[in-house]
Structure formats: structure tokens, C-alpha cells
Specification:
This protein is of the alpha+beta class. A hairpin with a 6-residue loop joins strand 2 and strand 3 (about 75-80). It has helices spanning about 35-40, 80-90, 110-120, and strands at about 5-10, 65-70, 75-80, 95-105, 135-145, 150-155. The chain contains three helices and six strands, in the order βαββαβαββ. Strands 1-2-3 form a three-stranded antiparallel β-sheet, covered by helices on one side. The chain has one domain (about 5-160): 3-Layer(aba) Sandwich (Trna Endonuclease, Chain: A, domain 1), CATH 3.40.1350.
Length: about 160
């Protein structure tokens, strides 16, 4: 499979990176939001989509995967083994026309309002205490000849 890029790696934070944890962009608060949008994170469709969170941005100790999709033709950034397994099912589904992983739930004001209405505390950056941008694991576009629609999916739904 020369055209297919599959890269599984076991991430771990070694001693040499413990003092440089600031280089990982694990939580984006409202101060960094304009920079992220300007750089194109969380925007585009198909081949032009850039995930909000990429594999290299996390100091994960688990299995992460970068794999080229048949549906989109681009490299997908998957942050867990469960996400990877579910992504394979989506990529092979004939009705799926686009898969966007680590999709940001914007505008952030909407997630703040929903959390307040449901009585939940919205996630906040640990240092700045400002609200962070929440993401969903997948935004999947389903299409056929008569219509196209999009659905949000969390990989945790696979086990239910």
C-alpha cells in the first residue's frame, strides 16, 4: 500500500519534555481563538479540512494514529484506539462523504449557554481560568443522491 499512510505511535512524555509542557497546545482558551482560526484550524471540508487538535499537539501517553483516509484523501489525526477503530468503520461506509475529526464547537458562546442551561460547569483553562473551546470527536457528513446531512459523533458512542 504505497499510497496509504498509516502511522501508529505510542506517545509518552519523556523526562526531556516535562519542563517544556507549554509547547503542547492541549487547551485553547478565548485568548488564542483568533490565532487558531486565522491559521485554519477547525476549518475546511474534505481534503482541505485541518483538525482543531492534531496528534503532535498532545502529550498523550496512549495510542495515537495518523492515517490517510479513502473518503477524504487526507491524513486524519486520531487521538485514541477507540477513535481509530470507529474512524475505520466510517471511512469504509458507502454513505459517508466527509469525516472531520477533532471538530471545534464554535461559537464558544453557544457551548457556554448550553452548559449554563443544563447546570454544568463549562471546561476552563487551568492557568487562565478562561473558557476553552470544546471539540467533538467526529463531524460526519452523510450523503446520497437526494440529500446531504451532517451528524456529530463521540467515539464513546461505539460501546453503548
Amino acid at each position: 500500500m504505497p499510497d496509504t499512510l498509516i502511522k501508529h505511535q505510542k506517545n509518552s512524555v519523556s523526562g526531556r519534555f516535562k519542563d517544556r509542557m507549554g509547547r503542547y497546545r492541549t487547551r485553547i482558551d478565548m485568548d488564542r481563538l483568533p490565532q487558531m482560526l486565522k491559521a485554519g484550524y477547525g476549518q475546511g471540508i474534505g481534503l482541505g479540512y485541518r483538525p482543531w487538535i492534531e496528534v503532535m499537539h498532545l502529550p498523550s501517553r496512549g495510542l495515537v494514529c495518523r492515517v490517510r483516509g479513502l473518503t477524504t484523501g487526507r491524513v486524519h489525526h486520531l487521538l485514541s484506539q477507540m477513535e481509530t477503530m470507529y474512524w475505520y468503520a466510517l471511512d469504509w461506509a458507502p454513505s459517508v462523504v466527509d469525516i472531520r475529526e477533532q471538530f471545534p464547537l464554535l461559537p464558544i458562546e453557544d457551548t457556554l449557554r448550553i452548559a449554563e442551561r443544563l447546570g454544568y460547569r463549562h471546561p476552563r483553562h487551568p492557568q487562565t481560568r478562561r473558557p476553552i473551546v470544546m471539540t467533538t470527536d467526529f463531524l460526519v457528513t452523510i450523503g446520497d443522491h437526494s440529500r446531504t446531512g451532517a451528524i456529530l459523533l463521540r467515539s464513546s458512542m461505539v460501546l453503548k
